[in-house]
Design brief:
Blueprint: H1 2-17, H2 51-57, H3 60-63, H4 70-82, H5 88-100, H6 106-114, H7 120-139
Length: about 150
């Protein structure tokens, strides 16, 4: 019994831990294959913008003055839905905050979110909308609130 165990253990060690090549198609990572760098090659990190970020950057005309009043806010929200930035749930939240808030601003939206009489679902929808609007405003360096 001891002999067969040693034979199996040796085959295991020889077969798994001492591989000379890596099967790249199946993801075996048991051996290290050193890569000789090309002389003069400098490694560089590259930032690739996502489609979402590219869409956000192209929204300048839609969002300028979007916080001017309730009507301009809803016009902006409808345009953003047309560009697939906001979904139908975000539009429900936008419609609600445009009716309820004293003025169209992030402070006013955050006060609405803090309202304890608001349902958890509506609170979540408004929070989601506000987060998207913060992202849009950040990408455009405050253009959303510019009149």
């Amino acid at each position: 019994m001891q002999v067969s165990r040693n034979v199996l253990q040796k085959k295991y060690i020889d077969g798994i831990h001492n591989q000379q090549q890596v099967d790249m198609d199946h993801g075996a990572r048991n051996s290290y294959i050193p890569v000789n760098p090309v002389e003069g090659y400098i490694h560089q990190d590259v930032f690739v913008k996502s489609e979402y970020l590219q869409k956000l950057e192209s929204l300048g005309d839609y969002i300028q003055g979007g916080f001017r009043d309730a009507q301009s806010f809803m016009d902006m929200a409808n345009a953003l839905q047309g560009e697939s930035i906001l979904n139908s749930q975000d539009l429900i939240a936008a419609n609600y905050v445009s009716r309820v808030s004293d003025d169209i601003s992030f402070d006013s939206f955050n006060k609405i979110i803090q309202n304890e009489n608001l349902s958890m679902e509506m609170r979540g929808l408004i929070t989601q909308l506000v987060n998207k609007l913060y992202n849009i405003n950040y990408v455009h360096a405050g253009l959303l609130m510019a009149s």
